[in-house]
Amino acid sequence: MVQFSNWDILRNLIFAAEWTIVLSLIAFVGGGLVGGCLLVARLWRGGWVNHVFNGYVQLFQGTPLLMQLFLSYFGLRLLGVEVSVWVSASLALTLYTSAFLAEIWRGCVAAIPKGQWEASTSLALSFGEQLRHVILPQALRIAIPPTVGFLVQVIKGTALASVIGFVELTRAGNMIANVTYKPFTVFAFVGLMYFVICYPISLYARYLERKTHVARR
Amino acid sequence: MNAQLDFLAVLSDWPMLLVGVGWTLALTAMAMAIGLVVAVACGWVRNEGPAWLAAPVAAYVEVIRNTPFIVQLFFVFFGLPSLGIRLSPTFASVLAMTLNLGAYGAEIVRAGLLSTPKGQIEAAQSLALTRFQVFTRVVLPPALKRVWPALVSQIVIVMLGSAVCGQIATEELSYAANVIAAESFRTFEAYIVATVIYLLLAISLRRALNWAGPRFIFGR
């Protein structure tokens, strides 16, 4: 029987952590793009787009990410698309991230005083110009800390992709625990790895938050 | 696309779904009852508690907040038995959910405690209230009231997170969906139904807690 040292376990987990990071980045970038488009659509046309936006956010924030992953996994297959688990996991996590980011950014845009919109309208700026020169530069500043903070949520969310068979940190942990019969050590290491990835980002988000608060005071 | 959706095959298993909903709610209720106490205790320690306790509590809060719930659950369920602590799936789920809610709740409660005007504490002290009385009667109720919406959101998140507990065979809603999917071969439909139920649960739980908070938890 092969003996696994702690170093063997850790080394294999570090390999798997790469996929956690890659999946997180895909979800974060994809979610940011989709969420940004949703928000712009909402700002551009109120009315029914508002309702669609709210429904979308409510749908993804009010259902478990695990169910979203299952639906994406089995739904794509039902449609007859034989896709890899990569696509299913990326799709579900992107949509999930987009709903949260859109809602976070909506709050940031809403925090811009109404007078800014009115002033830029009175200067005859088009909607695009208003966003580009007046609203977004201001909204962006307050949006950065919560966005960085949400990145931690995304990284933790990717752990659920293990359930549909995506081999990342958690899945690798499961597999190694089954082989080594050392679940305590393995899952402690897995937790530690997530902590090592997430904690600096949390600290950075907190630092940014403090900085923007001081600047606004 | 030539697939036919058949929701009846899933809905005819409604007793199983109902049991799942019951367990999901029961797990959430237990985690909430204990988790809120943990949250208040940890929030208190981090604000004005003894210094020797502050560091371990801070470590607990940061570790839980920076690791995924599923890993916490696996650690409790698969990891602890090697220390001789063997837990049933249900107990492991409640424990993991409680630890999770306690850590997130601690930060929320702490924010509420921090925003207490200093004059209120001084006024209470000048009325010769003990330190315990000042905390439980003057500081805590309005603090909970201020952060209640955030706490409710966190409780809803924990309820949704409990879907993961099906992975260790806790018989909650997602587990029921798994079993129905396996028995009826209507996998997609089973998860659609479960997702819709989760959505309804999330909406009604939020409403119920927003209603119950001012009446039972911190007074009007």
TrEMBL record, chain A:
Where would you find the membrane-spanning parts of this chain? 20-41, 83-105, 142-166, 186-207
InterPro entries (alphabetical): AA_ABC_transptr_permease_3TM, ArtM/GltK/GlnP/TcyL/YhdX-like, MetI-like, MetI-like_sf
Tell me which stretches of the chain form a coiled coil.
Answer: none
GO terms of biological process kind? amino acid transport
Write the record's keywords in alphabetical order, separated by commas. Cell membrane, Membrane, Transmembrane, Transmembrane helix, Transport
- Tell me the organism: Paenirhodobacter populi
* Protein family per UniProt: Belongs to the binding-protein-dependent transport system permease family. HisMQ subfamily.
Location of the ABC transmembrane type-1 domain: 17-205
Question: What protein name is recorded for this chain?
Answer: Amino acid ABC transporter permease
Any one GO molecular function term: transmembrane transporter activity
- Record membrane topology: Multi-pass membrane protein
TrEMBL record, chain B:
MF annotations from Gene Ontology: transmembrane transporter activity
GO (cellular component) term, any one: ATP-binding cassette (ABC) transporter complex
Q: Which GO terms describe its biological process?
A: amino acid transport
Q: Please list the coiled coil stretches.
A: none
SUPFAM superfamilies of this UniProt entry? MetI-like
Bilayer topology reads:
Multi-pass membrane protein
What InterPro entries does the entry give?
AA_ABC_transptr_permease_3TM (IPR010065), ArtM/GltK/GlnP/TcyL/YhdX-like (IPR043429), MetI-like (IPR000515), MetI-like_sf (IPR035906)
Pfam hit, one: BPD_transp_1
Transmembrane stretches, start-end: 20-45, 57-78, 147-170, 190-209
The listed locations are: Cell inner membrane; Cell membrane
* UniProt domain ABC transmembrane type-1: residue ranges: 21-209
Main subcellular localisation: membrane
- UniProt keyword terms in alphabetical order: Cell membrane, Membrane, Transmembrane, Transmembrane helix, Transport
What family does the Swiss-Prot or TrEMBL record give for this protein? Belongs to the binding-protein-dependent transport system permease family. HisMQ subfamily.
Q: Protein name, please? A: Amino acid ABC transporter permease
